[in-house]
What does this fold into?
Amino acid sequence: MTDDLRLGVNIDHVATVRNARGSAYPDPVRAAKIAEQAGADGITAHLREDRRHISDADIEGLMGALEKPLNFEMAATAEMQAIALRHKPHAVCIVPEKREERTTEGGLDVAREENRLAHFIAPLRDAGCRVSIFIAADQRQIEAANRIGAEVIELHTGAYCDFHAEGRFDHRDDELKRLSDMAAFGHSMGLEVHAGHGLTYDTVQPIAALPELRELNIGHFLVGEAIFMGLEPAIREMRRLMDEVRS
It folds into this structure.
């Protein structure tokens, strides 16, 4: 098994800051180019149905400007499928989406929507997009993701990070064990395994140490740290921590 661990930098919340003033600044495409220079292996952007941060124009700009792959996060809707098929990004990650949530609250319930999702992702795969499914570290969901033809699963690390922040370390360690077991299970099924949501400098290394993982997607924390230290140094430090634990 390779020791390489890719870093995908999510630039959604650069757009959040921009949209707070309704201006053109800061530009998420500029942030994505800085992320590439700082050691990101790819860029992640979530085009939400309500366009609360990333816009259609941002996706156009990213597709035209990026040298590294774009991971296009989206809900499983006809509108988003059409956008993905028009742009044909390197990867498409299907995520759950509720208008009232502040951020993605959990993984997609693939087992409950297996037939619909299988038909939904088939045209994306036919168009050459790598299809990833964002799910909880749950064996039933991993098996369903495999059955519908996903090539990649991304395990939701939000609970692990929340338990750490709350000082509930027994729960954190239980969640880390679950993530470890399910990363190994997904890998054993031939799926490529990614992880992300809520990761910080304090929480990234135990996740990065899981040998089956091939990619971490990190965004909100890095954009927050950029306020204090700049975006490029913030990303370089995350890259250093990931590399350190894999070396």
